Sequence to fold (99 residues):
Amino acid sequence: MLQSLEDGVVIETVLSLAGLQSWHSLSYGRFQMELCLQPDLIKKWKRSSKKSAAEAMSKGEQFDPSSSPKANFVRGLIEEFVDVLDHGVFADGVDASYL
Fold:
């Protein structure tokens, strides 16, 4: 699944579901690389960050984008998927490599 995120079609779909906020969960290096590869997202990223910061300030909260549910959506989804696989969800006799 992680390699699928490098596919343009897949990443567009994931972005539409999770939004740019989920990119806060990327490592700094990976985040910079993705922005360099997709320069059209830089303006959207800056606008989204400013909007989120303004919303947090208006509520009297500290702006910490990496802890928001939207920022952790994809990471949480992948972690949950891996946990399910680790707990042997496949019945005996079923070859998981076919799935």
Q: What stands out?
A: The first helix runs from residue 8 to 18.
